[in-house]
Amino acid sequence: MFDWVIYRTFEHFNKRDASMAISNTVNFMVLLQASLLVPLILIINLFTKVEPQMLGLDNRIEYYIGVPLAIILIILNSYWIKRKLKSEKLNDLRSKFQKEKYKVPIWVIFSIPILFVFICPIIYGMINGTLSFPFLGK
Q: Nearest-CA neighbor of 43 among 131, 133, 120, 118?
């Protein structure tokens, strides 16, 4: 699945600016993978109810975990994706995924991180009963 997304985003960025296509693809994949953590953590929290404050941890624990995680994702993706987008492996991806007309438009792929970061917490709040709208009254 990630190979398909990598190829589609690379193809999109390569049409616009070939010199920046690989770095833009790496950056988007880091954004996508980091945003995948939001629904994963929400699903785990839905069943376990673990809060950082219950463990006696600082309220800023998300930043202490998120910044190193982003750096690790950038390093790993730079190595992994750049290796995939070299000549022979790129030709393999092209033969596997190249189509004249795709069923999923590129804007859908680019909106997935928005869905994960903004919509999933709203759905989680509705399921968990913690979503409140103070402007609507009691």
A: 120
Single-letter code of the amino acid located at 76: L
100, part of any domain: no
Contact 9, 109 (CB under 8 A): yes
Q: What average pLDDT does the chain have?
A: 80
Give CA–CA dist 1/32, Å, rounded.
12
Residue type, 26: V
**Nearest partner of 25 among 96, 110, 97, judged by Cα:** 110
Phi, psi at 111, each rounded to 5°: -90, -5
pLDDT in tens, 109-128: 899 999 988 888 888 888 87
Query: What does the pLDDT average to over 14-43?
Result: 87
Residue 88 domain boundaries: 2-95+105-136
Domain count, the chain: 1
Residue 116, amino acid? F
